[in-house]
Each structure stands twice: as C-alpha cells, then as structure tokens.
Amino acid sequence: MTTQSTDHNPTPAALITHTIIRVQGEHTGDIAVYSACTPEARIRIEWGGLLMTMYTAQAVQGVLEGFATARAALTLIPRVTPAAATSLEPFARATVSIDWTRRPAYAVVPRQELAKNKAREIRWLDLHMGPVTFQILDQTGCLSAIALLRTAHHTATRVCLDGPDYADAPTLRTYTPPEAR
Q1: pLDDT at 132 over 90
Q2: Distance CA 28, CA 164 (A)
C-alpha cells in the first residue's frame, strides 16, 4: 500500500471556483499580524470556520467596504435567526481559507424565497466577492463581521506598507471609494 504520491505536474489537481459562506449570529474572531511593516506583512483573521489572510491594506479595506455596503440593506433581513445545529467536534466543522491579495469587486443582492413548508418567507442578503458569496442571514451576523473587519482594517493601516494609502474607513459617512476619487 502506498502512503504517499508525488505529483510532478505544476497544474493543481483541483481548484475551487466558488464557495458560499453563511454569516449568522454573534461572532468573535482572532486577528494575528505577521512580518509587520515589511513587504511580506500579512494579517490573518480567524472567524468561526473561516480563515482569511489579507496581504494588503487595500484588500482589508475592500472586504470591509463590501460588508459596510451590505449594512445599508440590513432592514430587509431578520435581526437574529436561530442558530443551525452544529457538531460539537472541531474536526467535523467545515472550514474555508481565503487569501485576499487585493481589493475585491463586490455586489449586494437581497434574496427571498418561501420556506419548504410554504408557511413563511425567508430573507437574506448575498454579498458576492469574486469566488466567494457571503450569505448574510441576519443583522447580528453582519454587524459582528463589520466590527471584526473594522479592527482588521485599523490594524492593516499600521502594519501593511500600503496602509497610509487605504486609511479611510468604509464605515464612515465621509468615505469615498478609491475608484470614485
């Protein structure tokens, strides 16, 4: 029985072209900085089953901008939704790792459909960011994501070399996106 296989082909055996991440309920996260104030600086955000590595302040600002834009449509979705049943075992939890190298393009799309029993309507927001769609199921989840990303953005403006260029906070009313400047 072979326990290892060597692949000499430089093309990856598989690529993930799209994934959906559900944002729901109160979240706490962990932010770590590596190689601060160097060209290799990066920020890692661990948030539930999600690990995001941000390589530039531009990337952090762009992701925060997407969630801040979704905040404008929060009145369309519930404040809190019941938590889905999850496994208590950490090894059974689904995880996704995303490396953000630059500002993503994004779109916020309000969604709705009838529940399976057709007794009520379910509403949520889809935040499309390239190969990732964040399904924002409730206001609490979106606001806790914004709080975590705001802290990451504040950190990125101090540890990433492009930080001073992207110091404007997308959560402020006076914010103007870089493309519109």
Answers
A1: yes
A2: 27
